[in-house]
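Appendix C: a fully annotated inverse folding record. The material below is reproduced so that readers can follow the format used throughout the book. The structure is listed first as tokens, followed by the designed sequence.
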């Protein structure tokens, strides 16, 4: 879709967006009973990462539309997805997310313009002069397509090393263009869409440490010299080895004191039950305590599609049931929701066989990778299960174990070979080896069905 057609489409849907916003406002006025409406009552957004290929799943779309006021495309705006060949842009999947968000009156965060990862191979092969041109062309092409439609952009992502040095991360941009590439990217982005908020985004910067100090020094320098930066994103991926730091709020505040907004951009917390709920509460309370913390985004709608699915890090489980962490977040935001009907189909223990399927890439090399799908029974025992794996068109499966596959095009349907019977809550799985054939994209794991 051309930029002109895109803008005409945006104008044509403005009435629909306005109507959706009015509906959401009326809903919020009745009761702050969802994450988005409760956050709005605190002057913030509450968003989630969205994958375009899940929007056709009814429960996924219904949960997204009901609960969230902002979306971030999970992979669909990254460089490999939007400009796989130099100068040739592809916006189909990202457009689908943006159009869906607009139809629901949601804001959109753009993620991400310049990042060392998920780059098409042609980017790394460029010399310095060509790379500078390509970087600026990519920013202009992507931001130009969505001009006026994106609330905030992660302009540069993860440019600093982990550890105690505070040094810049090695990447094609850093290695060939030097430290100045970040400033140049922000200046190009400001010219491309002056109305959008421009953010720097990183992980392991949630507390005061060498890495966050390095980012802090950069932001302070940018603000002193008039480099256009509006916000800093804190990914906030937490688990038992990397818990919510005790100085989390203080760290957010010191960045806000530099004159930038702060946003929690990729929140997920591994765990379960009351401990997970308590950690989510700490994060929400920290954001609410910092006036320039403008919103929070959890990195996914449901545990079953999380990149850390084995750690069950999100607010909805694999059956889209609200977890204790959901109730804790809603309460911390000042909302008052219905904790759920235990007689709903799919709730654990209601007599309906159910299962979830979660995916992990367990090994990776230049020409292929190994994937593992974990099948977990719901609240009742099951005697059999079925899961689908949709591969990118270029990829092919060369081996599969602990399952029996059938094929329809690039969709592999897998049933048990010996491991169909599972007790309630028990897990099994199957694995496979994939030849990439030029595509490093992840397969899509369909809904697990059980009997």
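Designed amino acids, in order:
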């Amino acid at each position: 879709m051309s930029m002109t057609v895109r803008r005409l489409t945006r104008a044509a849907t403005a009435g629909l967006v306005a109507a959706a916003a009015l509906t959401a406002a009326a809903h919020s006025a009745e009761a702050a009973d969802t994450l988005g409406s409760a956050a709005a009552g605190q002057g913030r957004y509450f968003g989630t990462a969205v994958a375009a290929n899940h929007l056709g799943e009814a429960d996924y779309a219904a949960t997204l539309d009901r609960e969230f006021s902002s979306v971030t495309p999970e992979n669909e705006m990254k460089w490999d997805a939007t400009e796989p060949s130099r100068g040739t842009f592809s916006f189909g999947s990202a457009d689908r997310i943006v159009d869906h968000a607009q139809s629901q009156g949601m804001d959109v965060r753009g993620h991400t313009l310049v990042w060392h990862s998920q780059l098409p191979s042609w980017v790394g092969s460029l010399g310095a002069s060509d790379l500078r041109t390509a970087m600026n062309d990519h920013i202009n092409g992507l931001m130009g397509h969505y001009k006026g439609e994106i609330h905030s952009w992660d302009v540069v992502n993860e440019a600093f090393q982990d550890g105690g040095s505070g040094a810049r991360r090695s990447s094609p941009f850093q290695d060939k263009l030097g430290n100045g590439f970040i400033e140049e990217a922000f200046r190009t982005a400001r010219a491309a869409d002056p109305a959008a908020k421009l953010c720097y985004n990183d992980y392991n910067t949630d507390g005061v440490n060498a890495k966050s100090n390095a980012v802090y020094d950069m932001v302070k320098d940018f603000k002193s010299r008039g480099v256009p930066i509006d916000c800093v994103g804190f990914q906030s991926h937490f688990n038992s080895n990397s818990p919510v730091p005790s100085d989390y709020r203080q760290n957010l505040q010191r960045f806000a004191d530099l004159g930038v907004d702060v946003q929690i951009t990729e929140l997920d917390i591994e765990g379960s039950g009351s401990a997970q709920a308590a950690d989510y509460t700490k994060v929400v309370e920290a954001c609410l305590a910092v006036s320039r913390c403008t919103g929070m985004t959890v990195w996914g709608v449901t545990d079953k599609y999380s990149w850390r699915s084995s750690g069950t890090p999100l607010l909805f489980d694999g059956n889209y049931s609200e977890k204790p962490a959901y109730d804790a977040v809603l309460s911390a935001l000042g909302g008052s929701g219905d904790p759920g009907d235990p007689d709903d189909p799919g709730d654990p223990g209601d007599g309906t066989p159910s299962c979830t399927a979660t995916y992990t890439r367990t090994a990776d090399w230049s020409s292929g990778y190994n994937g593992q799908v974990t099948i977990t029974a719901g609240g009742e025992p099951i005697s059999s299960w079925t899961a689908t794996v949709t591969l990118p068109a270029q990829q092919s499966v060369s081996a599969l174990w602990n399952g029996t596959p059938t094929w329809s095009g690039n969709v592999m349907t897998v049933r048990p070979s010996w491991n169909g019977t599972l007790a309630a809550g028990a897990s099994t799985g199957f694995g496979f080896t994939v030849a990439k054939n030029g595509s490093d994209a992840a397969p899509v794991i369909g809904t697990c069905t059980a009997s």
